[in-house]
């Protein structure tokens, strides 16, 4: 091969690389345009997030084929009976501590960047759960085999250590219906540390949904059409500022999911007052959850990629085992479900499910009228008994 031929091939390879790069940039730009809607106002958060105040009727939800032409619904009167049972602060997120807020008629949305999408496994998979070669580990409490129309609980907030940027640590509550591995419907909320999704190790408030067992529907937060946000006080996917400390002050997020018996929509709330309803998952998104959930779960999860060849040192909860108790271990308190008469009731037959007892586990808390049914959960991952 002579010099001219080598040089020609090199030029062709460079040209092809430039074409591929241009194509990728164009695809990312198109995706960003789909997700990020025009802002009436922009707020710069101290954690580096850009918060766009978007008109409520222009939010991503209404790009969904089943929701086109609709407008955000008002919180139903039927949900006002669930009164607040503890004091909560609206300013539990970093972006709002400066005193900045979005105007009436808008909602705050965390702006997605090119870097966010480049961290994903593909443009099409951005914002969705990754079904890859990892070990999924959990320590949860499950209430099953009944008809559930909502649930609530206060989830203790920590910033757990996450070993690899691909891994995450989550504390959450979720309601499901359908068959796992086939047609599962799920709605989820809580907090998570997930570097690959957000580009940092902050503890963030999140939601997720799927209508087909995580195959092709649903996503985190507002990263795809679906969830309709109605409240301007909260950023879904935003950094949480109130973090618990070991043997120090403890913070929890009181979260609830409630089904509106008229529309079938599932409403998400922070705190226990109806004025703190954040938005809803439309019933149209689901098959089985059009009716009711048949399982409610509370607890922690991590994913273990075994990047060092052994068990991950990613921790769950506070990173301490539940036996250490208050101020040291993570907890979820006031765990309740909503029956078909729309009454809040304690868990009747809670089942503790732990994937690896020596790495992460749960313990039921002592009887306490202020805390209701509650658990401690978590663990430190890799260790003497968790190789």
What can you tell me about this protein's structure?
- The strands form 3 sheets. Strands 5, 9, 10, 11, 12, 14, 15, 17 and 18 form a 9-stranded antiparallel beta sheet that branches. The protein has a 6-stranded antiparallel beta sheet with strand order 8-7-6-13-4-16, with no helix packed on it.
- It has a domain of 250 residues: Sandwich (Jelly Rolls), CATH 2.60.120.
- A hairpin with a 5-residue loop joins strand 14 and strand 15.
- It is mostly beta strands.
- It contains 3 helices and 18 strands.
- 45% of the residues are buried.
Topology, element by element:
Layout: H1 3-35, E1 41-44, E2 50-55, E3 106-110, H2 114-118, E4 135-148, E5 150-156, E6 169-177, E7 185-193, H3 195-198, E8 204-210, E9 228-229, E10 252-259, E11 266-270, E12 277-281, E13 293-304, E14 330-338, E15 344-346, E16 351-354, E17 361-364, E18 375-378
Antiparallel strand pairs: 1-2, 2-3, 4-13, 4-16, 5-10, 5-14, 6-7, 6-13, 7-8, 9-12, 10-11, 11-12, 14-15, 14-18, 17-18
